[in-house]
Amino acid sequence: MITEFIRATSPQESLEAIQKAGDGTVFLAGGTEIQRLGSAVACTKVVSLTQLQLSTIEEKDEIVSIGALVTFQEALESDLVPEYIKEALRYCGSRTRRNMATIGGNIALARDDSYLFPTLIAAKARLILGDIANDGKYTEENIPIREYHSFREHFAGSLILGIVLNKPNRFVASRRYARTVQSPAAVTISFGADTSSGSPHDIRICAAIKGSGVVRLLAVENGVLNGQYHAPEDAATQAALDIAFVDDITGSAAYKKYLLGTAVSELYRACLETLSVGGAV
Ligand SMILES: Cc1cc2nc3c(=O)[nH]c(=O)nc-3n(C[C@H](O)[C@H](O)[C@H](O)COP(=O)(O)OP(=O)(O)OC[C@H]3O[C@@H](n4cnc5c(N)ncnc54)[C@H](O)[C@@H]3O)c2cc1C
């Protein structure tokens, strides 16, 4: 139960408030997860981020910056946000929740049915993070989201200020498999590649798999890069390597493994097709 509500007016103030309030204190953005019945986020105190100026979407020289407090609906209504991000935003089927849920909150959660995380990895998005260093100074850094994903514990106390999409010509495509748009997804997967040289390189493939977490498919990324597959379908067998699938309400372990394999080959094929018709999307 939330017993204390703390307001902050700047990133520095919010980080200091978290430190001061101690254990059981978390940032509050849209609140859709924190206030969800049965939420995995346990907290007694919250530091509200709503007064931070992090709700803008800007574009300069084809680089799009999206503030952490931008809601899913605001991003969907912006002409600046790339279509592949909008596709992932629409995975949240509830308009009410889209009006509240923020981009930053979604990234921080990195749920095993995450709407956005796989797509942001595939897009090679960068995150702007705010932190208080050991000497008490406020710092900001700009890091690749793959680094945030690999070192989650290191960034656990960081404040996400926004995301930067600086690869305007990248191929990015995603799929989400769920019984209905409102149901939790068994698998959400995204495939990204730079296709400017005529063949896919700089590959990123990431999947949120219910019960297994958010995983990068490194073996397939390398396989695609090295041209080791005769056909996209050959990538399917490697997709499930080292992933412990589990049975749950979204489907059996075997079903999730099958979904992952077929989705990888479908997305790889879609990427190759954009090359054969003359360019990336
Ligand atoms: C019925 C229901 C179904 C849902 N289904 C899904 C689903 O399928 N997939 C999915 O991904 N999500 C799902 N969610 C969770 C949620 O709606 C989204 O993940 C949403 O984007 C979270 O954003 P928020 O702003 O509401 O986060 P909040 O609830 O405010 O915060 C969530 C967490 O993120 C932290 N946080 C928030 N903002 C920041 C920031 N800027 N920097 C650092 N940490 C921050 C908070 O401290 C907290 O730990 C569901 C929620 C509900 C109620």
Characteristic key phrases:
281 residues; 30% helix; alpha+beta; Uridine Diphospho-n-acetylenolpyruvylglucosamine Reductase, domain 3; Enolase-like, domain 1; binds flavin-adenine dinucleotide; 5-stranded antiparallel β-sheet; 4-stranded antiparallel β-sheet; 12 strands
Task: Give a short summary of the structure.
The protein has 281 residues and is α+β, with helices and mostly antiparallel strands. The chain has ten helices and twelve strands. Helix content is 30%, strand content 26%.
Structure description:
The protein is of the alpha+beta class and 281 residues long. The protein folds into three domains: 4-48; 57-165, Uridine Diphospho-n-acetylenolpyruvylglucosamine Reductase, domain 3, CATH 3.30.465; 171-276, CO dehydrogenase flavoprotein, C-terminal domain (Enolase-like, domain 1), CATH 3.30.390.50. It contains ten helices and twelve strands. The chain has helices at residues 11-21, 72-76, 83-89, 95-100, 103-109, 117-122, 145-150, 218-225, 235-239, 253-276, and strands at 4-7, 25-28, 45-48, 57-60, 63-67, 126-132, 138-144, 159-165, 171-178, 185-194, 201-209, 213-216. The strands form three sheets. Strands 4-5-8-6-7 form a five-stranded antiparallel beta sheet. It has a four-stranded antiparallel beta sheet with strand order 9-10-11-12, with helices on both faces. It is globular. The N and C termini lie far apart (46 Å). 42% of the residues are buried. The model has no long low-confidence stretch (mean pLDDT 95). Bound molecules: flavin-adenine dinucleotide. The site of flavin-adenine dinucleotide has 30 residues, from strand 2, helix 4, helix 5 and strand 8.
